[in-house]
Target: Hydroxymethylpyrimidine/phosphomethylpyrimidine kinase
Amino acid sequence: MHIVTTIAGSDSGGGAGIQADLKTFQELKVFGTSVITALTAQNTLGVSDVLPIEVSFVEKQLKALIEDFSISAVKTGMLFSSEIIQSIARILADVNIPLIVDPVMIAKGGESLLQQEAIVALCSYLLPLATIVTPNIPEAETLTGRKIKTFADIQDAAHTLLQMGVQCVIIKGGHLTDNDYAIDYVFFEDGQSFSMQSSRIATKNTHGTGCTFSAALTAFIGRGFSIKEAIVEAKKYIQLAITYDLSIGNGHGPTNHFAYQKYKESCEVIIHET
Ligand SMILES: Nc1ncnc2c1ncn2[C@@H]1O[C@H](COP(=O)(O)OP(=O)(O)OP(=O)(O)O)[C@@H](O)[C@H]1O
Ligand SMILES: Cc1ncc(COP(=O)(O)O)c(N)n1
Model:
């Protein structure tokens, strides 16, 4: 049994954060463990409050897992503060576990999930340890301090992130809504790159898409897939989760974490080597 860990915030609404991660882990047949960084009072209409967990207790959770389990991949989601980032980076620097960093900053409803001053800590302490980082376009803009409008901007941003020490950068195109496709761009430290294209689904039920994608990626890496295979299979997982949405709640509903097991043979993702 492969054991994986998510270090993230709790979403009481169950569509994003720790809850989305554990559901995805379960569906992808890995044993999920968790370190909770913050509680959010949240539903599909938005986040009404955030309660960060004390840094020392975040540390205790992570140390408890590392002491006892042989963890095959770790992901991070909502980390909230620079103090939490520094403390988990200190612990992760001493273990050799593939690390997937989803640089969660702002919820769909616009509420902040990462303090502004924590961005420097994310770039200085966590990204140098990351195997893969998965920013959406606004997150890539914030991490690199540059606007992204063209493919050349995407390439520049990816190279800046690779220079920070990340081994593989996935810039997700979910926010590029002027296109019939949802295209994600992948760049490796050795200069290789490719894009993944799937059809864009017209739905407002996209709460937790980023969390779910990075959790699927973590599960496949934890199971021993190569980085490229894990990325393509995670894209299929999120594509099906968005396609077969559940229409839960009155706002941006969650994705369907069950869909992949039922429909995985039917999902088409087009790869372009670049
Ligand atoms: N409408 C859509 N149809 C198909 N795929 C989509 C759609 N929206 C997002 N995706 C895909 O979902 C994955 C997550 O991308 P997205 O850009 O939504 O992440 P995110 O903004 O970090 O998510 P979150 O809102 O959870 O923070 C990517 O693979 C992206 O291409
Ligand atoms: C605890 C937590 N983590 C991550 C997200 C991002 O998801 P989204 O951008 O879809 O709101 C969230 N809303 N809550």
The longest strand covers residues 31-43. The chain has one domain: 3-273. Residues 8-9, 11, 16-17, 40, 42, 77-78, 104, 107-108, 113, 207-208, 210-211 surround MP5 (ligand 2) (CB under 6 Å).
